Amino acid sequence: MAKAYFTFKNIYLTMTVAATASFFSPTGFAHVVSPEDHHAFEHKYSEVCVKKELNLRKKENRSSGNPGYVDESLQKLCDCIAQEESKTLTKDEVKKFVREGKYPMSLMIKASQAEEICAKK
C-alpha cells in the first residue's frame, strides 16, 4: 500500500503549480489592465485634471482677465500625471474611475506621487 508523503517542499510545489495555472487561466488575467483601459484612463484623467485646474484658476483670479484657457504647460502636466498613474493602474481603479466616474483614494495617493515626479521634469 502506498503511503501519502507530504513535505513542505511538496506542498510548496503544489501551491506554486496551482498559482501558476490560475495566472495563465482566462480569469487569472482579470487583474491585467488592457492597453485600451490605460488609454481610456489617461484620456479621462487628463481631461478631469485640466478642468479641475481651470476651475481653481477661475476662483483664484476672478479679477484678472480670462484665466479659463488651457495653456501648453497645464496640458503637459496633466498628461504626465495621467501617464505616471497609469503605470501602476489596477483593473478596479479603471472600473471605478473610467466607468463609474468615482475617484478612489488609491488614485489620489498615486496622483500626488505622480505630481511630484512630473513637476521635476
As an assembly, this protein is: single chain
Q: Estimate the global geometry from the Cα principal axes.
A: globular
Pattern of helices and strands: HHHHH
Ends apart, CA distance between termini: 70 Å
Number of strands: 0
Q: Could you describe the largest sheet, including whether it forms a barrel?
A: none
Domain unit count: 1
Strand % is under 5%
Unreliable residue stretches:
4-29
Give structural notes.
This protein has 121 residues and is mainly α. The longest helix is centred in the middle third of the chain and has 26 residues, at 35-60. Helices cover 68% and strands 0% of the residues. The model is unreliable at 4-29 (pLDDT under 50). It is built from 5 helices and no strands. Helix 2 (35-60) crosses helix 3 (72-86), helix 2 (35-60) packs across helix 4 and helix 3 packs across helix 5.
Topology (SSEs and partners):
Layout: H1 8-23, H2 35-60, H3 72-86, H4 91-99, H5 105-120
